[in-house]
């Protein structure tokens, strides 16, 4: 079985009507969270552990990456 066929990608509900310029995430990779560019679904995928992804989300929500 091709692993790419069994993966479900999700976009944020805040991504807008067109769904352009978004990232998509999946938790269908064993032990990892996958992230890709919605405009390039066959392009590269960044992979993070669940702990790394939780840390990133927390830091994003608390403004650690705000300019």
TrEMBL record:
InterPro entries: DUF397. Residues 8-60 form the DUF397 domain. This is DUF397 domain-containing protein. It comes from Streptosporangium jomthongense.
